[in-house]
Design brief:
Number of strands of chain A: 19
Shape of chain B: elongated
CATH topology of the largest domain in chain A: FAD/NAD(P)-binding domain
CATH class of the largest domain in chain A: Alpha Beta
Largest sheet of chain A: 8 strands, mixed
Strand order of the largest sheet of chain A: 5-6-4-14-15-16-13-17
CATH superfamily of the largest domain in chain A: FAD/NAD(P)-binding domain
CATH superfamily of chain B: BFD-like [2Fe-2S]-binding domain
Largest interface: A-B, 31 and 22 residues
Number of domains of chain B: 1
Largest sheet of chain B: 2 strands, antiparallel
Radius of gyration of chain A: 20 Å
Strand order of the largest sheet of chain B: 1-2
Helix content of chain B: 40-55%
CATH architecture of the largest domain in chain A: 3-Layer(bba) Sandwich
Number of helices of chain A: 10
CATH class of chain B: Mainly Alpha
CATH topology of chain B: Arc Repressor Mutant, subunit A
Helix content of chain A: 25-40%
Number of domains of chain A: 2
Shape of chain A: globular
Oligomer: heterodimer
C-alpha cells in the first residue's frame, strides 16, 4: 500500500494507545489519519502484557483512569463490534506485610470515595474467591469485583478494525526516522518509506517513545525496563478466577477464559537494554510462586515464556499531553506497565485535548513538565 | 473452496479451521504472528508444531510469496511443555 504524502494526523505506534487514539479521533470526525507501525499491529508492549484491568490504585488519577477504563471495557464489544475477551473476576490483592496492608486500606478509602467498591476480605473469603489459594503467611486481602482482564490482541484489533471502517489508514513495516518541525510547530514525519506532512503528530511508541520524543527535540525522562511473563497449557476454568497479585512479593497470576494461566513478575535489576530475551531465573521463581500460592497447579505445564518493555516514568504515571516546545506534537506514553488497561480512556481523553476540548477527566497533571517542577504523583501499587 | 475444505481443522490445540485462517488473511492479517494474535493459532501446547507449515503455505498461496520468504513467526521457550512443579524445583529434583 502506498504511503500518503499528507495527513491531518499521524499516529506513531499501533499498540493499544495508537489504535485507541486513532479510533477516537476518527469517531470525532477527523478524516485523514495515518497510523505508522514499524513492525506488525500489537507487536510491542501491548501484545506482551499481563492483560490486567483494575481500579485498585493508590493515586486519585490512576483510580479515575482505572474506573473510567473499566466502564469503557464493559461496553467495548458493543461499541467496536468485536469480542475483546473481557473477564471480570476481580483483583484479589494479597498483602504480606503489615505496613503494606495499612497502605492498601488507605487506598481503599480513596477508592471508595471515588465510587470504586473495593473492600478487605478475610482469608476464608479469599479462598472462596480463589479456591485452592494457599497464603497462610498473608496478613490481609483486598478485592474489587469489577477488576479483571481482557485480551490485549483482540482489544487492539477491535480498535483497529473499527478505526479502519472510519477510514483510518494503517501502515505496517514503516519506521519513523525523524520528526519535522518549524518555529515551534510540528510539520510532519520522516519514515523509512518517505515523508508525510501533518500538522498533528502523536507519539504512542511505547518502549521507544523517548527516542521519538528526542526526534522532536522534546526531552522526557522515560526509560524502558524488561519484564517477564509465562503462560501454561489450558486447564479447567476456576483454578484462578481473580487476578491474584502482590506488590511486595512482585507477582501476578490470572487465568484466561480459554483456561491458560498467565503469571508475571519483574526480573532483578530491571534490565534496560531494550532486549526481549527470557531467563531461566524467571521461569524458576515464577513457577515457585505458582505452586506455593496455588498448590494444585503443580502438574500444569508451562508452554511459553516471553518478555516485554514497561515504559517507566519517575512517578510510574503516564505522560499524556501536548509538547510545550513543539505545538501539534502530542505524547501518550510512560504508562509504566499499565498502558493496556488505560488505553480505552487515554485515547478518548487525548482526542479531546487534540480537538481543543476540555478532557472529561482533567489531564493537566500528566504533562511531562511535572518532573522538572518536582510535582510527582508517585503510584506505589505496581508489579 | 468447497465447504468441507473450509471446515478442516488446521490448529488442533485452539480448534481453528482453514476457512477462518483464509478469512483473516483476506482481512489483512498477512503474517504468521498476526494470525497467531487474532486466532491463537500456534499458541497451544504444541506451539505450532502441527499448524505452522500449513499456515505458512496458505500465506504463500494468498500473497504469492514463496514460503521461504515468509517469516515463520517467533519460537519461544520452553520448546516442550514442562510441569510447574519440575520448574519450581530448579536443579534440585
Amino acid at each position: 500500500m502506498t504511503l500518503k504524502r499528507t495527513a491531518d494526523v499521524v499516529v506513531i505506534g499501533a499498540g493499544i494507545q495508537g489504535c485507541s487514539i486513532a479510533y477516537h479521533l476518527a469517531k470525532s470526525g477527523i478524516k485523514d489519519i495515518v497510523v505508522l507501525e514499524r513492525s506488525t499491529i500489537c507487536s510491542g508492549s501491548t501484545g506482551r502484557c499481563g492483560a490486567g484491568i483494575r481500579a485498585q490504585w493508590g493515586t486519585e488519577m490512576n483510580c479515575r483512569f482505572g474506573l473510567a477504563a473499566i466502564e469503557k471495557f464493559e461496553r467495548l464489544h458493543e461499541e467496536l463490534g468485536m469480542d475483546c475477551g473481557l473477564h471480570q473476576g476481580g483483583y484479589l490483592v494479597v498483602a504480606f506485610e503489615e505496613s503494606e496492608y495499612e497502605h492498601l486500606k488507605e487506598s481503599i478509602r480513596l477508592q471508595n470515595s471515588l465510587g470504586i467498591h473495593t473492600r478487605t476480605v478475610s482469608y476464608d473469603e479469599a479462598r472462596e474467591i480463589c479456591p485452592g489459594l494457599s497464603a497462610e503467611d498473608a496478613v490481609g486481602f483486598t478485592f474489587h469485583g469489577r477488576d479483571g482482564h481482557a485480551d490485549p490482541f483482540l482489544t487492539t484489533f477491535a480498535y483497529m478494525e473499527a478505526a479502519r471502517r472510519l477510514g483510518v489508514d494503517y501502515q505496517r513495516f514503516t519506521e519513523v526516522r525523524g520528526i519535522r518541525y518549524e518555529a515551534g510547530k510540528v510539520t510532519g514525519v520522516e519514515t523509512s518509506r518517505g515523508q508525510i506532512d501533518a500538522p498533528v503528530v502523536v507519539n504512542a511508541a511505547g518502549g521507544y517513545s523517548q527516542h521519538i520524543a528526542k526526534m522532536a527535540g522534546v526531552k522526557i525522562p522515560n526509560s524502558s525496563e524488561r519484564h517477564e511473563i509465562l503462560i501454561t497449557e489450558p486447564v479447567e476454568p476456576g483454578v484462578c478466577p481473580p487476578m491474584l497479585i502482590s506488590f511486595s512479593r512482585n507477582f501476578y497470576i490470572q487465568q484466561r477464559p480459554n483456561g491458560s494461566m498467565i503469571g508475571g513478575r519483574s526480573p532483578k535489576g530491571h534490565p534496560q537494554d531494550y532486549g526481549l530475551g527470557v531467563s531461566w531465573d524467571f521461569l524458576e521463581s515464577m513457577s515457585r510462586t505458582f505452586v506455593k500460592l496455588l498448590p494444585r497447579t503443580r502438574g500444569v505445564r508451562v508452554v511459553r515464556q516471553w518478555s516485554g518493555l514497561y515504559n517507566m516514568t519517575p512517578d510510574c504515571q503516564p505522560i499524556l499531553c501536548e509538547a510545550d516546545e513543539v505545538k501539534g506534537f502530542f505524547l501518550s506514553c510512560g504508562y509504566s506497565g499499565h498502558g493496556f488497561m488505560f488505553g480505552p480512556i487515554s485515547g478518548e481523553l487525548l482526542t479531546q485535548q487534540i480537538l481543543g476540548q476540555e478532557p472529561r477527566i482533567p489531564i493537566m497533571m500528566l504533562h511531562y513538565r511535572r518532573f522538572e517542577k518536582g510535582e510527582l504523583l508517585v503510584e506505589p501499587a505496581i508489579v | 473452496m468447497n465447504e468441507r475444505e473450509e471446515e478442516i481443522v488446521i490448529c488442533r490445540c485452539e480448534e481453528v479451521t482453514l476457512g477462518e485462517i483464509r478469512e483473516w488473511i483476506d482481512r489483512g492479517y498477512q503474517t504468521f504472528d498476526e494470525l497467531k494474535r487474532v486466532l491463537r493459532v500456534g499458541m497451544g501446547p504444541c506451539q505450532g508444531r502441527g499448524c505452522r507449515e500449513m499456515i505458512l503455505r496458505e500465506l504463500s498461496l494468498k500473497t504469492g510469496k514463496p514460503v521461504s520468504e515468509i517469516h515463520p513467526g517467533t519460537f519461544r521457550p520452553p520448546s516442550k511443555p514442562v510441569k510447574l512443579s519440575l520448574l519450581a524445583a530448579g536443579g534440585d529434583t
